[in-house]
Amino acid sequence: MERSDWWKTSISDISPGVIRYHGYPVEQLIAAPEVGMATMAWLLTRGELPSVPQARLLERALVAGVDHGPQAPSIAIARMAMTCGVGINNAMASATNVLGDVHGGAGQELMEIFATILQDPRPLPETVAAEIARLRAENKYVPGFGHRFHPVDPRREPLVAAVTQAREDGVVEGRVLEAALEIERQINEGRQRPIPMNIDGATAIIYAELGFAPVLGRGLFILSRSIGALAHAWEESNSGARNKGPEHRTILPDYVGPAPRDVP
Amino acid sequence: MERSDWWKTSISDISPGVIRYHGYPVEQLIAAPEVGMATMAWLLTRGELPSVPQARLLERALVAGVDHGPQAPSIAIARMAMTCGVGINNAMASATNVLGDVHGGAGQELMEIFATILQDPRPLPETVAAEIARLRAENKYVPGFGHRFHPVDPRREPLVAAVTQAREDGVVEGRVLEAALEIERQINEGRQRPIPMNIDGATAIIYAELGFAPVLGRGLFILSRSIGALAHAWEESNSGARNKGPEHRTILPDYVGPAPRDVP
Amino acid sequence: MERSDWWKTSISDISPGVIRYHGYPVEQLIAAPEVGMATMAWLLTRGELPSVPQARLLERALVAGVDHGPQAPSIAIARMAMTCGVGINNAMASATNVLGDVHGGAGQELMEIFATILQDPRPLPETVAAEIARLRAENKYVPGFGHRFHPVDPRREPLVAAVTQAREDGVVEGRVLEAALEIERQINEGRQRPIPMNIDGATAIIYAELGFAPVLGRGLFILSRSIGALAHAWEESNSGARNKGPEHRTILPDYVGPAPRDVP
Amino acid sequence: MERSDWWKTSISDISPGVIRYHGYPVEQLIAAPEVGMATMAWLLTRGELPSVPQARLLERALVAGVDHGPQAPSIAIARMAMTCGVGINNAMASATNVLGDVHGGAGQELMEIFATILQDPRPLPETVAAEIARLRAENKYVPGFGHRFHPVDPRREPLVAAVTQAREDGVVEGRVLEAALEIERQINEGRQRPIPMNIDGATAIIYAELGFAPVLGRGLFILSRSIGALAHAWEESNSGARNKGPEHRTILPDYVGPAPRDVP
C-alpha cells in the first residue's frame, strides 16, 4: 500500500482493518448509543464530536425538512425517475441534483445574511433595517420568510421553541435567533397579511447557532430531504406507472410557436 | 386549491398551514425528542412509526455506512464535482448517482438472498448450502462477504453485537442474523484466509431483521453515505483545486489505440 | 509527464500540443468538411471513421430523436431543473439521467432482439414468430412498436425510406430492416387498430444495420435527445418561473394515506 | 386531449400523428439531407433554420470539443460510473453534470466579455485593454486563453481558419473574431512563453459570431463533449473493472486529520 497526497483528507483514515473518522474508530461510534445521523453529519463536516444537546438540536432541524410532497420539483423528479427504468440511487440523485440556489438555497442565503448582521457593530434593529433595505433595493425578498401557500408554516413554532430552549440551557448563544426574530418583526410591521418565518428560515437559525458554514446549511437540508426523495421514489415505483409525465397523459402542453411550415 | 390524483401520495398530506406525514403532524414530530432521522426514514418509507428500540437499531446501521474515503468512486466524484464549479447539491447528487448495482447494491442483493433462505422449509444449513452452491454455479460471490483490503471489517463486530442484543431484547426475531452467521460459517469452512462479513452484509442483516424491502436497503445506505459525500465535497471545496482529475496533473493516461494516421 | 495504465484508453492520445482520436489528428478532423457530429460519434465509439454514406444514414436517426415535448419525463425534468437555480449542465444531466431502461431503453432492447433473430438459422418468418411468442409468453410487448398516442409515428416513414435507400446503395445489408418489417407485419396481422413501428424501432434498425452494439443504441439516442433537453432548459430559463412543480400551483396532490393522528 | 399552458412551449408541436419543431414537420427534417445535428441544435434553440454555411461553421466547433481524455473530471466520472453498476444514461449524465462554471464555463464567460467589448463605442484596442485590465484587477485570467499543458492548442488554428473563411464568404461579420485576436495579441505582448487561445476561446468565437447566447455556448459544448462521455463510458464498461477508484487500488489517500482517539 502506497499513500498519495492527490486525494488527501482529514475525514477518514482507512487502512487494512482500520476505519477512523477524524481520529475516532468507527467501531466505537457504532457502539455508542448517543451517536446518530446528526452526530455523524457534525463530526464528518466539522472535525469534532458535538455535545449531546448540540446533536439533539441539529436533529430537530433535520427532522423538520424531510418532505413537502410531489409539488416540489425535487420530489416530483424522484418519482418520475422511478417510472423511467432507473435505480433508486438515480432517482434520489435526480432529486438532490435540483436542490439548487432557488429550491435549496434560501437557508444558505439567510445564513450569509445572519453572518453580516452579527458582524455589524450597530444596534440590532438598525443593522436589520439596513439589511432589509439593501435587499429591497436589489428587488429581493428576505430569504427564509414567507410561503406561497402556508399562511403560517407549522414547522416554525416547534423549531423556534427548540432553539429558544437550547439558548436557555446554554447550548447556543441565541444571537442568531434574536436577529431572525427581529427580521420577522420588521418585515411584518404594518402588514395585514403576515409574512411568517418558513422552514428555510427556522432551520437556518439552528444551523447558524450551531456554527455551521452557510454552504453546509444547504448540505444539511439535502440530507434531510433525501428521506422524502427515497420515500416518494419507493412509493412511485410500486405504482406500475411507466414514463410518468408531469401532467396526466391526456393533457398536452400548449404549443405557442410558429404555425406549420415547410422545410425550404 | 384543487386536488389531482396524478400525483397522489400516502406520504405527506399538505394543505395551507398543515403538513402531516402518514397522518402525524409535523409539529409533533419535530417536538418529540425521540424522533430522529432514523425514525423519519422509517415513518416515511413504511407508513408507521418505529418503536424506540427499532429506530435505535436502524440508526446503528446508518451510522456505520457514512464513509469509506476517496478511493470509493462515489466520494472521489463528489470531490471532483466541487472543483468543476458546481453547487454542493450537484456534488452530492453526482456521488449518489453512482451508488448502483455494483457500488451500492450488495446489501440489497443479500437481502433478496435472505428472503429466499427464510422462505425455504429445509433446515437452515441445508438451505444456505444450496444457495451458496447456486451462486457459485453462476460464478458469483456471496454479496456482503469479503473485502478487497480489510482482512476483518471493523464494522462487522459492533453491528452484529447490536442486532444480537436486539434479538435478546425481543426487538427483532433473529432469523436473518442466524442465516447470515450460517452463510459466514459455511463460506469460511476450510479456508486459511477468512472471508469476513463486510459492511454491506452486516447492515443488510439489520435492515432485513427490521422488515425493510431490499430496495430500501440500498436507499438507506444512500442516506448514510450522503453524509460522507457532503463532508468530502465540503473539504475539497476548501482546497482551491480546479478541474481536479483522477490522478495528479503530471500523470497522463496510457494511450493504447492506433498509431498516428491521417484523415483520408 | 508520466503515463499510467489505470486510466488507459484507445480513444484519445493527448500530449502537449497533440490531440488525436484513434490516431487521427484533431486539426484534420476539424478541417475536414464532411466530418460532423455523426462522424465523431462513430469514430470515438467504434475506432474507425465511417464512410460518408454511413455517417449520413446515422445522422438521419440522430435528427429524428431530438425531442418529443415536455410530456416526456426527461424534458419536463430539464425544464423544472432550470427553475430551481442550477446551471444548464445540471438541467441537461438531469434529463439524460432518467433515460433509463423504460424511457430510453426500447431501442436497445429491440437491437438485442434483432441480434437474436439474425443468428437464428430458421427462415425469417419462423424466427420472428418464435421471438414474438416468447415475448408474449413473458407478458411483454415487442419494444419499438406502438405509441401511446401517435396512431402512426411520423418519423417511421422517412427513417425506413432512408435505410431502404441505403440498402439499395450498398451502404447496409438490409437484413435488420427485413427482420423489422417482418415483425411489424406479424404483430399487425388481423388487427383493426394497427401497432406501428415507432421512433425507437425505426432508429434501432439504422443503428443495428450500421453495426452499433445495443448499449450504444441507447447512447446515440441520448446524444440526440440532449438537443431537446438543451432547448427546453433554455426556453424555461427565460420564463422566470421559480421551483416549477409538475402541475399548476393551485393543484395539490391527492393525499391517500392515514387520517390525522397524534404522535404517541 | 386537453391542452394546458403550465408546460407551454414554442419548440415542439405534438399531436396524434404530428410532430413539428418550430413549425417544421419532423418527417421533412429527417428527409432533408443537409439537416444534421448542428442544424437541429440551431433550430430547436433559436427557432429558425440556419443556412447551410452557418450550420457547417457551427459543426466545426461541435467537432472540436468532443474529448480531452480521462484526465478531465467529466470523462473520468463517466468511466467510474460505468464500473459502479449503472446504465449508460447515468454515466453520461454524471459526466455532463460536472460541466459547471469551472469545467464548462470558460467559453460562456468569454462570450459575455465579447458582448461587452462589442457594445463599447471606443476603438477596439482601447476597449480590449480596458477589459483585460478589469479582469486583472479582479485577479482573473481572461477565460478561453492558455492551457495547463498544451503550449499551443492544436484546435485553435483550424477553428480560427474556419471562422476567417466564413467571414470572407459573408457568413459571419467577423467582429468577434477581430476582438478575440486583439485579446490574444494584447495578452501575449512582451511575453516569452505565449498564452495561446484554447478550445474554449476558439469555439466561443464561432458561437458568438453565429449569434448564440452565452448560456447556449455552454450547452453546445455539452452536446459536443457528450460524445466523448459516451465513448469513454462504453470503453470502460468493456474493461470488467468494478468500483474503479481514481487511483490504483494499491494507492491510499494520505490521511491528514487528528491522530487516533477514543469516543468519549
UniProtKB/TrEMBL annotation, chains A, B, C, D:
Cellular component GO terms held in the UniProt record: cytosol
Keywords: Lyase, Transferase
EC class: transferase
Gene Ontology biological process: carbohydrate metabolic process; tricarboxylic acid cycle
Record has Phosphoprotein as a keyword: no
Keyword Nucleus part of the UniProt annotation: no
GO molecular function, a single term: citrate synthase activity
Domain of life: Bacteria
UniProt name for this protein: citrate synthase (unknown stereospecificity)
